[in-house]
Amino acid sequence: MTAARDPVSGPSRAVVGVLLLLSVVLAAAAYRSLGWRMNGDAATMLYAAFLQRGEGFVLYRDIFDMNAPGAHAVYRGLWAATAGGERALRVADLGIGLGLLAATAAAMRPFGRRSAWAAAVLAGLLYLGSGDALSLQREYFVLVPAALLLALVMPRDEGYGRAGPGALAAVLAGACAGVASTIKPQAGLLVFVVMAAGFDSRGRTRAWIRIGAAAAAGAAAVWAGVLLWLWRIGALPSFIDIASRYWPLYEALTSRPYGVLSGWDRAAYVAGGYARGLSGARAIWLAAAAAGLIWIRASSGVERLRAAGPLVALAAVTLVFPGASGKFWEYQWLPFGYAMMLLAALVAADGVRLPRWRAAAPAVLLVVAAFLPHRAWTFQPGRQEALARVDGMRAFVAEHLRPGDTVQPLDWTGTALHAMLAARARAATPFLEDVHFYHHAGHPYVQGLRASLVRRLERERPRFILQVDQPGWAACPDAVHPFPTLGALLERDYVAAARGTGWQIFECRSRR
């Protein structure tokens, strides 16, 4: 679809002025983010990359982890490029962000340059405004193939809009969905975004099926390559075991409150999670997204509204993500927020034929920007406390660790692994987090994990055990169960060696 030329007018100049202002704010946020340090999830994934690339560990076989292989591939690449350096990671993060903004602008280009500009700037502010706690999250990496997918399927002219994407474009877009699903499996639903591009095929069901089949083939080809890679490195059997036996247990967990729910109780929990998640700022985003669609329909007609079909499909698909995991953590809303920013950016589209509507576009953009997160500018005590724990543990381990020593974390927040990564300490067992042992304790699979941990600790005798007293799963008695054999091992074989606020380090008696 070719955007109509839009002569520069008072309202359009105001839109450009607002976008220039927001671009300056985005540049300032990017500069400020260079001082951020990695968060717990990024530290966990980067530590796994360090073990794979530096210590010869095999993913899933030597590292028990529930994250999908594509996420590990991304962090392996980050480790290769940065070696875990905090500043280098920030530069890499911003580089990925620039790629995301470029792909976003390309996807929105059919609606005009201003709309493309607005979408890129709002998406950047959404991400950086969320602060360092959400930096380098897996959902952020999902956005890059999602934006490329949109750039491939968005209509470029009137005929293309009616026929949908061609076979090659559909295959490539499906491959993008496949890449995203190797990072977060629920992102496989992005295939429906590709299919939505064929809904404007004037009722021709065959065309819609053709597009869906081509997209599915592209996604399947990506997964075939990933499974082949896992087979070549000797990780495939362990991955299949974890995916088939542990993933269902972990997905049954909820957050706030932490526990295991089923049936109507889980349905009520999911409904409550959506009710809370779609309130506040996200309600403003929903209103702005609706305004963008109304704007396009009222000013440019049904044909152009149909062109926004893939954007609507992206919003619908990404809205499913938090409920599919059942966790409703803030970073899981990031893809949905991204879709909202794209729809809101439609108010800046070229070719609008209603001047009285266009006069309100700058106000809409400013309201959306005002309700984006602003943690890039605020002090976050919780993050500072976590980093203080990291620095305290790292200093002790780096000073006392001897060649050949190993370390075992007892933590699920990534704090201990952050310290171990900074000290380049080798893990003693495949278990980098202890959350796996504290839910479904009566299940045979979890009992087997507990027995494996104790058996390996008795055999390896790690020099230090790092325990973080962070409220989490252990805060809810419905989700956590005692682990008496681990407690007995610590009491028998270890002695307290160091303690700080929220953390303690145990040293093996026989290795002192």
Any overview of this molecule?
This protein has 512 residues and is mostly helical. It has helices spanning 10-33, 40-54, 69-82, 86-108, 113-129, 138-153, 158-163, 167-183, 191-196, 205-232, 236-251, 263-277, 281-300, 302-307, 309-325, 334-344, 355-358, 361-370, 381-400, 415-423, 444-460, 484-493; strands spanning 253-254, 259-260, 406-410, 426-427, 464-468, 494-500, 503-508. A hairpin with a 4-residue loop joins β1 (253-254) and β2 (259-260). The longest helix is centred in the middle third of the chain and has 28 residues, at 205-232. The radius of gyration is 25 Å and the shape is globular.
In short:
With 512 residues, the protein is mainly alpha-helical. It has 22 helices and 7 strands.
Q: How are helices and strands ordered from N to C?
A: HHHHHHHHHHHEEHHHHHHHHEHEHEHEE
List the domain count as a whole number: 2
What does the main sheet amount to? 5 strands, mixed
State the total count of DSSP E strands.
Answer: 7
Catalogue the unreliable spans.
Answer: 1-10, 474-479
Q: For the residues shown, what is the average pLDDT?
A: 86
- Count of DSSP H/I helices: 22
Helix content: 55-70%
- Describe the strand arrangement of the main beta sheet, using strand numbers: 4-3-5-7-6
State the end-to-end distance.
72 Å
- The best one-word shape is globular
| Category from helices, strands and their pairing | mainly alpha
Question: How much beta, percentage-wise?
Answer: 5-15%
Rg from Cα: 25 Å
